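Working notes for the structural subgroup meeting. M.R. asked for a predicted model of this chain before we commit to crystallization trials. I am recording the input and output together here so anyone reviewing the notebook later can reproduce the run.

Input as submitted:
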Amino acid sequence: MDTDIKLVDIEPVFTDEVFRTPLKFGTGIIEAITSLTVKATVENRTGQTAEGLGNILLSDIWGYPSAEMSHE
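Returned structure, recorded in token form:
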């Protein structure tokens, strides 16, 4: 892919978040979850920079809808 944007820096931050009340999702109950936030800095050919943030909750409970197999 031809682009004039290059990655200058990337900073991942993992945090553990505890829910105020348990969340029932599929056949499981989630009481806490790990959150990943990524801060990226990019630069174009003229030297202009920009920063951006992205976040995702890391959970596999949705992938195990069966009561016969645990996600653990």
